[in-house]
Amino acid sequence: MGTTAREILDLAGGMQDGLTLRGWLPGGASTDFLLPEHLDTPMEYDAISKVGSRMGTGVIIALDDQHCPVGMILNLLQFFAQESCGWCTPCRDGLPWAVEILSRIEAGQGAQDDLDALQQLCGFMWIGKTFCALAPGAVEPLRSGMKYFADDFQQHIDHKGCPHRH
Amino acid sequence: MAKIFIDNQQYTVKDGQNLLQASLSLKLDLPYFCWHPAMGSVGACRQCAMTQYQDENDSRGRMIVACMTPVAEGMRVSMQQPAEKLFREQIISALMTHHPHDCPVCAEGGECHLQDMTVMSGHNERQYKGKKTTFINQKLGPLVKHEMNRCITCYRCERFYKDYAGGTDLAAQAISNKVYFGRQCDGTLESEFAGNLVEVCPTGVFTDKPFGDHYSRKWDLQTAPSVCQHCSVGCNTSLSERYGSVRRVTNRFNDHLNGYFLCDRGRYGFSYVDNEARRQTITLDGKQGTWADTALNVRLKNKEKWIGIGSSHASLEDNFALQQLVGIENFNPGLDAQQEKLLTTHMAILSQWQAASLAQMEQADAIIILAEDVNNSAPRIALSIRQALLNNAREQAEKLRVPGWQDAAVRAIQPHYTVPLAILGYGESDLAKQATISLVCNPKQAAEQGFLLANLLNDKAPKPKASKVFPQTLRLLEILKAAKRPLIVTGWSANNPALLAAATNIRNALKGRNTENENVQDDAMLCIVPPEANTLGLGLLTQSGYLSIDSLSAEKMSTEKTNLLVLDHCSPAFAKRLIEWRQCSNNVVRLSQLGAPSVDEINLPVSSFSECSGSELNYQGLIQSHLPATKPSGQCLPGWQWLVNIARLRQHTLGKIDNLGQLRDLLNRDYPQLSTHFNQHHQTQLALQTPRVSGRTAMLANQTVHEPKPFGETGAPYKQSMEGTQAGQKDEFPLAYSWSPGWNSNQSNHKFRDEYRGSELEKQKGVRCVISNHSEQWLKWQTNWSKNTKAQWQILPLQKVFGSDNLSLHALPIAQLKVQAQVVVSPVDAKKLGFIAGQLFYCDDNPTPLQLAISQNVPFNSLLVYVPADQLFELRHCDQLTAATDKQTTEYSAQILQQQSQQQAVKQQHQERLLAQDQTIPIHFIEGVI
Hints:
The complex is a heterodimer of chains A (166) and B (930).
Chain A: H1 5-11, E1 21-25, H2 45-50, E2 61-64, H3 69-83, H4 89-106, H5 112-124, H6 134-148, H7 150-158
Antiparallel strand pairs in A: 1-2
Helix pairs in contact in A: 3-4, 3-6, 4-5, 5-6
Chain B: E1 2-6, E2 9-13, H1 19-25, E3 49-53, E4 62-65, E5 76-78, H2 82-95, H3 113-121, E6 144-146, H4 156-164, E7 171-173, E8 180-182, H5 196-200, E9 206-208, H6 209-213, E10 222-227, E11 236-242, E12 245-251, H7 264-268, E13 282-284, E14 287-289, H8 294-300, E15 305-309, H9 316-326, E16 331-332, H10 337-350, H11 358-361, E17 366-370, H12 374-377, H13 379-388, H14 391-399, H15 407-413, E18 421-425, H16 430-433, E19 437-440, H17 443-457, H18 471-482, E20 486-491, H19 497-511, E21 525-529, H20 535-541, H21 554-559, E22 562-566, H22 572-583, E23 585-592, E24 602-605, E25 614-617, E26 622-626, H23 639-649, H24 660-670, H25 675-680, E27 686-687, E28 718-719, H26 759-765, E29 767-768, E30 793-797, H27 812-816, E31 822-825, H28 827-833, E32 840-843, E33 850-854, E34 862-866, E35 877-878, E36 881-883, H29 886-920
């Protein structure tokens, strides 16, 4: 505990040739994105919390510049929607709704109001509103992704498609 | 009481409840779905969101769900701030993503809780751009229709069906937004409470199928408060009618009895009133006639003695009028010899010990049932007993400061805090499956153990002839000594008064059990279940004497010529007795609802319970009145009215009665304890329909522009009315229908439920008609109770919800579910005799084919036999069980198939007849008979 993320990534072999880091999830799928500028944060609870994320499950997931952040977020939300137990309304009906929107955006069929809808869904499924922490966990990569990769989302909408190769 | 702040407004609310209950009791419009007053809180839907604040300075707060939050002194919450209002609107929006645009074709429309909550939330514009899921519906039987696309996954159906009612064939399946509520595969829902799904479901997933076949919107229905006629509990119901026919029965909330739920026999058994077999005309020797016919008049004025035969499903007023007309000494209650004994015993017991209400039974912490299958004889009682099984878990939860309404928590610990349920008796049943102490025995043995138990509890209790105490009884002894609210249940199903005596002695013995601690109240409870809706009404009327069935024997009657005046009966056993009596009678006059009239009698057609006012005494001796929803057709009149008319012909004083109110005044004179109840019913007339909605007066425009005179009875508190409830009129109790501004569904009950508190609850508790004689005597064992049979097997009777009540068998949905005759043998007997389950058998010479079942719950030397109420079977013993031949089996199967196809044909005809009736709308414009 306390080792910086940069050191951990180096120990893991660093980025592959030709790839640059765009963002990273410090604690697995249900944590907020952090940026390369946060790499020197010691990996421990308070420090990570201060920069706006969580230790989560202690698994770092790295996003490179050749992969679509929207696609990554769609993949994560599909996972959470599938795992939703179905007990409470915001998670059961909100997560598939987010997936519906993200799918269309990634396929080039997104509209401007879809971004507003996604923001609304982030608030809808936040802590205290659901029966357990699954949905808030799903919201973390979505809301942070929309914040840090806002341009990518906008590009998908303006150019009606995903600029990254799949 | 706790002082709380909602939106900075101070309120005082009751302690112990959750914030949702508190808000509703304050008449605040807080929306919800998954909470239910009977099923507690689970926090699934999140619709009841509010914001809770730490103190006056906290302006941000955090979102909570009110149903899961206990009220606390000084708590600060808000309901109308943007955060929670937005969230509640978003919940609706989320539920709407897959909800079909079905309102125009959905049966729930107009009384849909989802509609109400959607309007309440303010959501009105669809944002979701995706496609909607389509589920495949299941065929769930003739009572409940399934339309899964409308589901909002509130889980109420599963929680009711599985958790509350103990059903095993409906559950939530799959996960996420593919959750599916249904059976494992198509098939009739097995629970006798399945119909409640229709009321518990906030959308149109589960709807009333028979109602759907002849549908009407709620706002077009006129609804009258009524009482179920199909067992002795007397659940409060609402009858909804349109165009002169009763369309459906829904639950009418009664805090002491049925609460929020009915059994399916009560919910669907009413449609016998529309059956083709309803008598419509006066007949004389098989030919139609009118009241003015001289021949009829002469016969009715016959000077010889008239004997009146009452009925346990005719109203108190009908039976009383008959008794007045023929005289107490000539009034026979219409029961068989054994039932007369049971009635005398039962009335004696009731005058010593009050019978517990269902609400009280739900509080029991130890239950003993003596040889009575309440699941089938009085299903609503079984449902309440089932709830009591959670009481120890609830008590433990409260000790841990988890409120009892935290349903999931209580159920989670229930296996570790079981409530002892002892069943001494025979037969399979849902309750038997949950018994913690079980003794398979015949009724005599159950009664003996009951007597012995009472004696062990209190040595003053008389002993029975037998002396063997079974280990189960010893275990029960310890349990009952420690129990705070023990409940003893028995009934008439086994035809044995010894059981009633045993139960009473146990009750008596429990009285003195806490002599050391004077502060402990005597909270022991007794419940004895008689067979029919007004059996105890007969008990009240015959307390000062009656003509017993022994005196009606053919020999006694042939010495002097008599006339018989008979109230409604439909059992084959009665028909058999009547044949014998008929031979010794001058005239037989029958006042009947159903069936083909015989050629040698006078037949006067009576109104059914939905067509006139009447009262019954339920198993507690509580008087309850039902009110008419429609007018009768043809020449039908209420039974008492025919009797008054006959009295006029004979210039008998009964003929002076002009209306029901005067008849009830006579009743009050003889039974002053009834006057409180009847006086309640002589108030201003109220409407049977919600405030005026457009289109009502246009209803008959194709026939006439004139508004028809509202139909009502003199002295009745309700009348049909175009106006509906007056604006500003206080919600009067009992309300005929369930409605509140903004709440069109049955959830509106919770908006005025607080009116059920206080004085209204007291009124609802009702008037117990059996006066206490303040003596608490022991009942002695009678020698004839120890009789043993020498036959190979003693036959013990079984009941079935769909089959053991005659009236409901004339309702098509119930007839479709009628269970066929059965005989149940023990595995030992089956093996010894080489019997296979499903085979057909005959008992001795009796021609009724019985399908064999095998069960562990068959006492030694016994057979359990169930025969539907429309078949005669009088055997008490059997020496030989003969297997049916192949020919007989084929004939039987063919018969069953024929019955089924006949039912289909009848259903078709019935449908066509009702639809044709709608075209002419039989509204009666003329003044005349009621």
